[in-house]
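Q: I'm writing up a methods section and want to include an example of the input and output format. Could you take the sequence below and give the corresponding predicted structure tokens, formatted cleanly so I can copy it straight into the document?
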Amino acid sequence: MISSVGLPTCMEGMMYPVPFATPDQVVELGVHAEELGFHSVWGNDHMTTQKYVRESYPTPPNFWEPLITYAYIAARTTRLKFGTGILVLPMRRDIVVTAKQLATLDQFSKGRLIVSVGVGAYREEFEALQPSADVHRGNMLEEGVQALRVLFSERNASWKGDYYEYKDVEMYPKPLQDPLPIYFGGNNPNAVRRAAIYGQGWMPAGMPTDQVREKVAKLHEIAAQHGRDGSKIDVAPQLMCYVAKNYEEAVKRFEKSQMYHHLISLRQSTLKDQAGMDLVKTNLIGNPEQVIANIKELEEAGVKHLCGTYFVADSVEELKDQMSIYSEEIMPHI
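A: Here is the clean output for your methods example:
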């Protein structure tokens, strides 16, 4: 089982307090992740503050753009991979510029980039950036990935679709990795379908193990229908984690955390189909033995990668402590 960790690029006001991490501390967390043996760090992508966050804090949160952040951390590390969890592709209207940024980062990091894309949890954010746009974000996302692949594979690339258009673009260098790994984030059937047809990975968030098992079976079925081997598609869920000496302590800390309340807010969007789920049982909350047992169940359900695990914390030091505990108490057993 691969273990990765969530990097606080755009988490202030949602999962963590405002303020939470300075630029130096974000880099420090990346270096710490590499030293502890984590496979990769995964940062999320926001451009403007959500309404509920504005109502909760008197000052705006700091949102660090993930690709620029990764470029800086890549220069301070040698092995650590970098995943976007997720890159909200519909907010990035110039697909050629996005392709150029991704290819450049993959080259400079020596092939350490993984790109997970999605529609974004908050439509209000998309509408703030593109108030006049009348689009289906899912269709825009799907077309955007296809347009990226053409840029990454053809010498003279052209595309004309419903949302993107370019003509005779010679974009070099291409990404170092061929193909550049693209995952699809999301819990709904369309995310599974897109991953099965176009992706190297599927990244659900906060999904109960029994649902993961059902959707992995569907992922493999759709992949086979399109001539692909579903077993080669990475199943990489994002989960919350808090490891304590005993279960009661872990649950108490989790339910008091800002991260817990963020999950409640997502019941209006990303988690709307899972409104009745037990947030404690769905995530990695408990003592080491319990967390290991939960991970083993996920592995049996088809999970290959605990992707961008978000540790409960109110400070960078608490986050680093949880990363260390996980590295020492959990990783050797999975």
